Amino acid sequence: MFLEVSDIQKSFGSGESRVEVLKGIHFAMERGKMCVLLGPSGSGKSTLLNIIGGIDTADAGYVAVEGEKMAQLSDKELTRFRREHLGYIFQMYNLIPNLTVRENIETGAFLSKNPLDMDDLLHTLGLYEHQNKLPNQLSGGQQQRTAIGRAIIKNPDILLCDEPTGALDYHTSKDILRLIEEVNQKYGNTILMVTHNDAIQKMADRVIILRDGQIRKDYENDEKISAADLEW
Amino acid sequence: MKKNPLRKRILREFRQDFAKYLVIFAFMIMLICLVSGFLVADNSMAAAYKEGFDKYNIEDGHFVSAMKLDEKMIETIEKDADISIYNMWYADEAVDGLAEHAKLRVYPDREDLNLECLMEGVMPQTDSEVAMDRVFAKNVHLQVGDTIHMIGKDFTITGFVALPDYSCLFENNSDMMFDSIHFGVGLMTQDAFATYWNDENTPEYAYAWAYHNQAHEAETEEKDAADDVLEVLKKQVALKDFIPQYANKAIQFTGEDMGSDKAMFLLFDYIVVAIIAFVFAITISNTISAEAGVIGTLRALGYTKWELIRHYLAIPVVVTLIAAGIGNIIGYTVIKQYMADLYYNSYSLCTYETLWNMEAFVDTTVVPVLLMLVINTFVLIRKLRLTPQQFLRRDLKKHGKRKAIHLSSRIPFLHRFRFRILFQNVSNYLTLVLGIAFAGLIMCFGEMMEPMLEDYTALIQDSLIAKYQYILKTPVETKMKDAEKYAVTELETNTEKFMKEDVTIYGVASDSRYITAAIPKGKVLASNGYMDKYGLRVGDTLQLVDSYTKEEYTFEVAAEYKYDAAVAIFMNRTEFCETFDKENDYYSGYFAQDEITDIDDKYIAATVTQDDYLKISNQLKVSMGDFMALFKVFGVIMFILLMYLLSKQIIEKNTQSISMVKILGYSNMEIGKLYITSTTVVVIVGLLVSIPCIDALLDYLFHTYLYQEMTGYVPYIISNFVFVEMFLFGLASYFVVLILQFIKIRKIPLEEALKNVE
């Protein structure tokens, strides 16, 4: 398996205030697939995504990419791992405010030996006309497109998306989902998307539903539809 | 009245950014305690110095007679001049083992006039004991209990004293500068003095006088009174020396020097506080940007702009107030003594009592708080003038959204990134460059004095008129072939901007071998020091005044004459005699290449050789050394502080972005290169750019401030080494800050990017 998540456990706090957020999460994914992690607030989906992304560490269990276990990596190796394999998209975009659209995307390109073509990507993202603007001159959708561009320009093996449409309106959300779908099809990245929007599961190859830190449902989506056809 | 709940944030903010506030706090305490300590010490010691005239019953003048005066003569003089006369005999003796030419002027213990102030130990009781001037003893490394050897005998030092008639250790009143390394004073019992110096081994027969009628307020009155005494003495005494109190440098010089540094310290205080206020302003500005959403919400809830301004002003004002309080306490207790010691290092001052100084309180507490209030209120008003909606949308520009400055994509990405950091932090960097320049200025000022004095001494030696310059008490002929007569007098400057000072007027022979430039008829040559100090040009007219007769004299400058040693003008001797109403063959001194040996010392008022200038330079180095070291240390601390605070701001402002690029996979080193390189470049460029600025500013300060506050002339010379040292100290300071920045970057957690952007 390309991505292996094995018996991940995570808790926060101590003593009486200790909260178990993840209680033994176990699943595996093939390369190039799109998986949606679904669940209500507090179900542990973002924590799981952060552990997979190497931002947070698990109390027990492990995450392995192509057999390489992340828990065994030093900080330096973890940085290299993120650099070579991961792309990250956040709900609040996290763009660097004093860099232009092009420069924000270049922060991703800088890390790759073979980045995607910048102009081509800007066209794909619909940002070519806006490439010299600062984030504060863009709409929410344009900012999220820039964040997607920054994540995928290095053509990562895994694209982690944490509520990528959480701060966007319906139409913009659909645009962004279409873009993620397009990226998945065009570049073949493995995508793991956290959301609490039930409708989005319909565009995924695989759906994992979390509740109270445990996987309640894990299934292959045989009736996958295009992001353009999603309704909610 | 309800209290604003926002006040609870203030303490939390302190705790949250403890390191930053601690550094600012410590620096402000250091600044204020230095300034307060100086002002208190200066004021208290000046008061003690003035009180000393009555407390220690200082003489109104003294004279030295060639012979011992008998009782009857003394009575006659006392009656005729309406004065009381006191024996002030002394003997100048070489002390074995001390520096060459070092001598101790020994007096018998005083009972009525010029009473000593015992600073340490006890007064001598036996024939083999001596009390010594504290400053001289310190300079020659002697302690109470040590033994010195003079006049073939051993003497134990029983105590250190300060003599009020030698608060400044001038050996002779004609000396250009005092020399507390080679000249000191001491006391022994009257019996011991009489044992060693008597009719066989004669002392100098010095007598001090005190007027019966003390009311001589103005200098002219004092001069008139002294002239009356002189007239009486001339009839009775073969005078070797005559020095009224007002003209006695050993008494007056200290008082004239005190208070002259006050304006400089205050200027220093205000500038540093203003720079710290700007650092606070930048901090507040960044906080407002970071808390835009909160501010928008509070404004939407009904909080007024002024409630928020008061809230954000609280920290800088509280920090300044507390720092001022603590700084003043330390200033009054510890630093005051240190500052007093700086005076004690130069001058033989008596003990003093600390006086409450209202002016020091205003200058070190009220003014800094006001500066902090005004600068930060101005910044806050500008930052908070946006609407609540603009804050909520984080649209923090008053006029439209901020646009990116265009940078060509041909510029490598890393360079563009660094340019963006530079553009993002323009105000930080401007303050940093300003701070670097000011810290550099302080450092250079502390560093420049010693090489400057050495260069000055060399310059003087190159431009000496003659190896020997004699000033005569009365015209006396010499047979020395190379001796050339000249006439000399002194007039006072009459310029409002500058301190009054004496200008030496030389009347030289028209075919002089020593003043080689031609002097056009009816005009004068001005020394280059005079020209530079007063900003004179050829063709200018000088107005000088006789300080006693108030008669005014006008001279036209024909040319500059290279003479660095003094503020002087040169004219033809015949014109000198006409101008000052002297006989045609009048002269009052000799220039000579060899020492004149056929004129008795009693006719010589002063001899000026290059050693006198070396003496000035050495004494200034001793007197100012500690002061200058203080400036250097302060400059380095200010370098580190400003670099640390402002670079920290830049990292803090970009914490979320740094966290994000960490998530993207950038290593700490790469992030350091992205975010620190701009600061490094600014620091290096700032240090380089500040060099010519400091040079120009110091030159300007010399000409506008120092020259107006001092008499005499020291050319502005700054060695390149001073700038090299400043640059290296600046870089070394930045290196410390660089390491701290790397640590800070390394500590930024990845989770920071996951927080909701406020």
Task: Write a structural description.
The complex is a heterodimer of chains A (232) and B (758). Chain A is α/β, with parallel strands linked by helices and 232 residues long. Chain A has a domain at 32-46 and 84-229: Rossmann fold (3-Layer(aba) Sandwich). Helix content of chain A is 29%, strand content 27%. Chain A has six helices and ten strands; from the N terminus they run E-E-E-H-E-E-H-E-H-H-H-E-H-E-E-E. In chain A, the strands form two sheets. Chain A has a six-stranded mixed sheet with strand order 6-7-8-3-9-10. Chain A has a four-stranded antiparallel sheet with strand order 2-1-4-5, covered by helices on one side. In chain A, strand 7, helix 6 (170-187) and strand 8 (190-195) form a beta-alpha-beta unit. Chain A is globular and about 50 Å long. The model of chain A has no long low-confidence stretch (mean pLDDT 90). By secondary structure, chain B is α+β, with helices and mostly antiparallel strands. Chain B folds into four domains: 1-29 and 263-397, no CATH class; 54-257, no CATH class; 404-461 and 611-758, no CATH class; 468-608, no CATH class. Chain B is 53% helix and 16% strand. Chain B has 20 helices and 20 strands. Chain B has helices at 7-16, 18-55, 71-81, 134-139, 190-196, 219-236, 249-257, 262-290, 292-301, 305-346, 358-383, 388-392, 413-424, 426-463, 528-534, 573-579, 610-653, 655-664, 668-709, 720-747, and strands at 61-65, 83-87, 91-94, 103-108, 117-121, 129-133, 147-150, 153-162, 183-188, 205-211, 239-244, 468-472, 484-493, 502-508, 524-527, 541-545, 552-561, 568-572, 589-592, 604-608. In chain B, the strands form three sheets. In chain B, strands 3, 4, 5, 6, 7, 8 and 9 form a seven-stranded mixed sheet that branches. In chain B, helix 19 packs antiparallel against helix 20. The model of chain B has no long low-confidence stretch (mean pLDDT 87). Chain A binds chain B through residues 46, 50, 53-56, 76, 79-84, 86, 88, 90, 92, 94, 96-100, 102-103, 106-111, 132-134, 136-137, 150, and chain B through 394-395, 401-404, 406, 409, 413-414, 416-417, 420-421, 423-424, 654, 656-657, 660-667, 750-751, 753-754, 756-757.
